[in-house]
Amino acid sequence: MYAKCGSIEEAWTVFEKMPSGNVVTWTTIILGHVQCQQGQKALELFEKMQQEGVQPDSVTFVGVLNACASILALEEGRGQVCRQQIIQSGLESDVFVGSSLVDMYAKCGSIEDAGKVFKKMPSQDMVSWTAMIFRHVQCREGHKALELFQQMQQEDV
């Protein structure tokens, strides 16, 4: 609540008073920093969370990928740490993680990687379709964007 209202300092005060950090508390503070446009700090917290032995879940990875996208840190998102952990956690096929990967790759200008992840997803949601369509528009590939939009409609998304 504090972070969503722009009071990341207040969020920290609450976080530091909690008896032990778990995946929920760590993910919440990471997402708070993403919400407050502090992507680099969110990535630093992700590393610290892991150093403390807390295993990330799908929501954590969504936040980390959003942090990467917000600071256009393709190598952070593609890097061994995040990508390998997503695979090892068995979350590569998770629609939310997959959509976040598509969005991160697309925002960072790697439309090819975004397309690869998009095609591997067992199902695509509105976020992944929109990310792909919007990035094709940004790359001045209007024809491809329209094709994807038609495909999306055919699949009742």
Q: How would you concisely characterize the structure shown here?
A:
This protein has 157 residues and is mainly alpha-helical.
Blueprint (SSEs and pairs):
Layout: H1 8-17, H2 23-35, H3 39-51, H4 58-70, H5 74-78, H6 80-88, H7 95-107, H8 111-120, H9 126-138, H10 142-154
Helix pairs in contact: 1-2, 2-3, 2-4, 3-4, 4-7, 7-8, 7-9, 8-9, 9-10
Task: Please give a structural write-up.
This protein is an all-alpha fold and 157 residues long. The protein has one domain: Tetratricopeptide repeat domain (Serine Threonine Protein Phosphatase 5, Tetratricopeptide repeat, Alpha Horseshoe), CATH 1.25.40.10. Helices cover 71% and strands 0% of the residues. It is built from ten helices and no strands. It is elongated, with a radius of gyration of 16 Å. The relative contact order is 0.09. The mean pLDDT is 86.
Kindly report how far apart the N and C termini lie: 31 Å
- CATH architecture descriptor name: Alpha Horseshoe
**Main sheet, how many strands, which sense, barrel?**
none
Gyration radius, in Å: 16 Å
What structural category characterises the helix and strand content?
mainly alpha
Protein name: Pentatricopeptide repeat-containing protein
Pfam families: PPR, PPR_2
InterPro entries: PPR_At4g14850-like_plant, PPR_rpt, TPR-like_helical_dom_sf
Keywords: Repeat
Main features:
single chain, 71% helix, mainly alpha, repeat, elongated, 157 residues, 10 helices, PPR_At4g14850-like_plant, Serine Threonine Protein Phosphatase 5, Tetratricopeptide repeat, Pentatricopeptide repeat-containing protein, PPR_rpt
